[in-house]
Amino acid sequence: MATIYTYTAFGLTFSSEIEIPEFLPTTGESQVLITLGNVPENIEGNSTEGFRFQISKNEFIIRFKPWVSFYVCNGNSIIIQPEKDADERDVRVFLISSVIAILLHQRGWMPLHASGIKVNNKAVLFSANSGIGKSTISLALNRKFGYPLIADDITIISEKEGKPIVHSSFPSAKLWQESIDLLGISNEGLNYIRKDVFKYRYDNRPDFFNGILEPFIVFVLENSDNEKVEISEVKGIEKFNVLRIHIFRLRMVNELYATELFKLISILLNTAKCFKISRPKNGNTLDELCSIVQSIITK
Amino acid sequence: MINENIKFVRKKELLSSRMDNEIVMMHPESGKYFALNPVASRIWELLEEPNSINDLVEKLLREFDVTQELCKTEVTVFVGEIIEKKLIDKSE
After folding, report:
1. Are residues A95 and A116 in the same domain?
2. Is A239 an 8 Å CB contact of chain B?
């Protein structure tokens, strides 16, 4: 009998045949099973095909050639089929990002491309495209003001009794060397997230909060050609539009979960305020950004 | 031209959500979004119950400071658009 690992992440308990050191170990009954096995050739019935993947409302197949394939179904099962020379880090990078994101979509939840911190028992999120600095701002605010971290790349929004809730993800961030320098962290002893991707895996366990929070503010970060950091509160329909584009893997799931996502964005934005921050593409504006965010969240 | 006395009502399957003073709505089958400005949002609210163009104009005139003529033109244009986009039905 192989070892079974039990973890908590994204508000769920996972039972896994592979070790996932990035997740927090836990005990108890699991809602999701991660097993090693054969990924089916095709999804039966109606499905949509995309680059490397096939998707239907309850099933998903993706092949990251030449490393690994995954089959995700019913929001409660993931089958992993690694190729012969697959590095376990390659497998995990895909598993704990895109693959689990689809599983969360299948459960009718909304994975947002956002990092987050806990401020007075509420969640403050930083949503942005890759490379804009969502991990860095969360870590910087944690180091400066002590706010616990709740997510690095994907934050989950779901609903309970008509109210939005934010689930923490797992205590690990992915950082480029540039972010490590900005934050003044040492890269000694850190591993790369993948064999050939020079981004570091940074464990932030002591500073991580695991649990459920009410949403407070969503900051949407963007790069701009301006010389100054600019911030404005987003209201009305624009709020909807700026956030919708940051749903994780929205293009992959296309309209499959349109109704669920519409409802979740609506209840989220009826509770949380939304601010847009544009920052200059070049130059170090991290300190300025931290002060601006701190002044808004402590207002 | 749309008959001014025919009553229209929102399609039941549409999802809509208020964001401050604007409304965003979605057709669940197509996944298409529609955004409404504040005045259109008010008309949309009124269309929760069956209303004709004349009913709408009468109600809006009580709330907004516009001439009857302008109000009627705008309501007719808006109702025409949402008929075309299949967002409302004739009320039975």
Report:
1. no
2. yes
